[in-house]
Amino acid sequence: MNDEMEAFRAEVRAWLEANCPLSMRRPIVPEEMVWSGSKLQFQTEDQRLWFERMRDRGWFAPGWPVEYGGGGLDPRRQRVLEQEMARLGCRQPQYNLGVWMLGPVLLEFGTEAQKREHLIPMMQGRTRWCQGFSEPNAGSDLASLRTSARHVQDEEGEAYIVNGSKIWTSYGDQSDWMYALVRTDAGARKQEGISFLLIDMSSPGVSVKPIELISGKSSFCEVFFDDVRVPARHLVGPRGGGWAVAKQLLQHERAAMSKFTEGSAPSHDALALARACLVDEDGAPREPVLRDGLARLLMDEQAFSLTHRRVKEMALAGQDVSGPAAIMKLVQTEQEAAKYEFLTQLLGQRALGWEGEEFTRDELEVCRAWLLSKTYMIAGGSSEVQLNIIAKRVLGLPE
Ligand SMILES: Cc1cc2nc3c(=O)[nH]c(=O)nc-3n(C[C@H](O)[C@H](O)[C@H](O)COP(=O)(O)OP(=O)(O)OC[C@H]3O[C@@H](n4cnc5c(N)ncnc54)[C@H](O)[C@@H]3O)c2cc1C
Asked: Within a domain: residue 116?
């Protein structure tokens, strides 16, 4: 078996060496991320080549079955591919909520027809998906959502008529499809009246309004549904069974968040920057109290990275890692924020520049990364809510 795995490793290594363009081996920055979908655009020929080669190999989702466009690799081979990509510093060839979050739940809960209709275009990079969960009065308390989907059976067939709105929909204006939670039974208990529906964003009655933030343009949108007709074949799981699908999807979201941070990570190494601030012109250490803070952050980072590797191995061995995943989402996002709080403390006003030639590129990036780090503690479940989940489901504490 080991020989077989070593042969596979050699094959992967040779393929990556031959097929990953050199410019695709540099750390990625947000503006160079390639988002799949009908609006897909490449800025360089290398981006296109890397995208097409990985797509054709089925390595957008190496573990998915080949018949849906995946790579059909078993967990050990997936791990080898990940290791070899990391060794060369290969970028992700594309970013797509569909592949990370919806795809795995369609594989688990979808019908054969749904898998064929949605997984294949997703794997060809032709459709972009957004997430329609949050509503103005349903964020942490998601089960309070009110967007309704009325079941109808008429001359046009069986369908759901959707009315209501979603908020904080990331990239709603760029997406082709939305996976959404809707209320199909207003009389049932909160969670039991919710269904999971796939909505074509070009359907009549869907309108999207981008949200402006204090920093100007943002990826957030509001999405409004006005008598939107959704064919019943787009219901995933049983009617009223959407909560179980959503819970599973949120686990994939939390796992995928490490990829977001990777993709939108600034090109600087925050702790290396901090270290440079803590020596004087002659290289002698200064500020003992702050150096203590840096040492703590470095130790935390090392401990997290080792834990991450261990949990990944457990997942590949088929063990249930939902508990550790909930803890890691909390710890990782809190650590990221702590790192940038520390840097802003060190750089003072220089960390607060938004634009201008008086700031270095690193300083401008620190400001953006500091603000961004706060959003990770909210997206995919806020830290407080995450603590509640850990208390209840992982530690088994009473309500
Ligand atoms: C970067 C980013 C991207 C996002 N993308 C999407 C997206 O694509 N699609 C989508 O549907 N949503 C998206 N969201 C929304 C996100 O899911 C919600 O913001 C999140 O669930 C929190 O809900 P809320 O904003 O309504 O805050 P609230 O639920 O109103 O919470 C407000 C505060 O109260 C605290 N709180 C709430 N309940 C409790 C409790 N029981 N115990 C203790 N404290 C509590 C929270 O921790 C928080 O600090 C995104 C958010 C961010 C920041």
From this structure: no
